[in-house]
Amino acid sequence: MTEEEKPVRVSIYLSEDVRARFKSACALHKKSMNEVLVEFIEEYLAQNEQSPPQPKK
Fold first, then answer.
1. Domain positions in the chain
2. Residue 22 burial (CB < 10 Å; 0-12/13-18/19+)?
3. CA 8 → CA 5, 13, 53, distances in Å?
4. How far apart are CA 26 and CA 40, in angstroms?
5. Which residue has the higher pLDDT, 27 or 57?
6. What pLDDT does residue 2 have?
7. Mapping DSSP to helix (H, G, I), strand (E, B) and coil, where does residue 57 land?
8. Type and span of the H or E element at 37
9. Per-residue pLDDT tens over the stretch 11-40
10. Burial of 54 (0-12, 13-18, 19+ CB in 10 A)
11. Of 11, 16, 18, 39, which is least packed with CB atoms within 10 Å of its CB?
């Protein structure tokens, strides 16, 4: 994120078990749940977001 980008909150619903397992897995890798989710979302967008059309030459 750049200084110009304002962070916003996103909420999701998980079962208690999935949340606990995710939190433990993140802790094992010394990362916050937020860090892991942001990385996942950025990777997902890089693979799935359409590129803007390129101008014809």
1. 16-48
2. middle
3. 9, 17, 28
4. 13
5. 27
6. 65
7. coil
8. helix 33-48
9. 999 999 999 999 999 999 999 999 999 999
10. exposed
11. 11
